[in-house]
């Protein structure tokens, strides 16, 4: 077998890419839906659109304090407001890589690629821990 016949994406790479593509499309759809709910007033926002420009000059901490908005994952409790619904799409897109890594682990183990399987598992652990805010990042 020549060296040229080995060129190409591995099954793990194709699986990762396919999941990433579908996840990106799903995330984009979520973002579009939540944007329309916000812009067309189908769901009321926490900060009314006509008052939003009053807060543009504030830094993040001042904005959160001024409007009494909790930091971190507390936005999950504010999903009744359209300006927080868009966080669903953002969080989903941020988590797609984790899903991709989880999906390729069984294939890596089946192919006896133990080192890559361990690296994929470690990647899932690190990304998941970072998303929780355990490292002091606030989870986002």
Characterise the protein shown here.
The protein is an all-alpha fold and 140 residues long. The protein has one domain. Helices cover 63% and strands 0% of the residues. The chain contains five helices and no strands. Helix 1 packs antiparallel against helix 4 (82-110) and helix 4 (82-110) packs antiparallel against helix 5. The longest helix is centred in the N-terminal third of the chain and has 29 residues, at 11-39. The radius of gyration is 20 Å and the shape is elongated.
Q: What labels would you give this structure?
A:
single chain, 140 residues, mainly alpha, 63% helix
Oligomer: single chain
What level of helicity do the residues show? Answer: 55-70%
SS content category: mainly alpha
Uncertain spans, ≥5 residues at pLDDT below 50?
Answer: none
Q: Which descriptor suits the 3D outline?
A: elongated
SSE order, as H and E? HHHHH
Q: How much of the residues is beta strand, in percent?
A: under 5%
- Number of DSSP-assigned strands: 0
Distance between the termini: 48 Å
**Main sheet summary:** none
The whole-number mean of residue pLDDT values reads 90
Number of contiguous helices: 5
Short description:
By secondary structure, the chain is mainly alpha-helical.
Layout of secondary structure:
Blueprint: H1 11-39, H2 49-52, H3 60-66, H4 82-110, H5 114-132
Helix pairs in contact: 1-4, 4-5
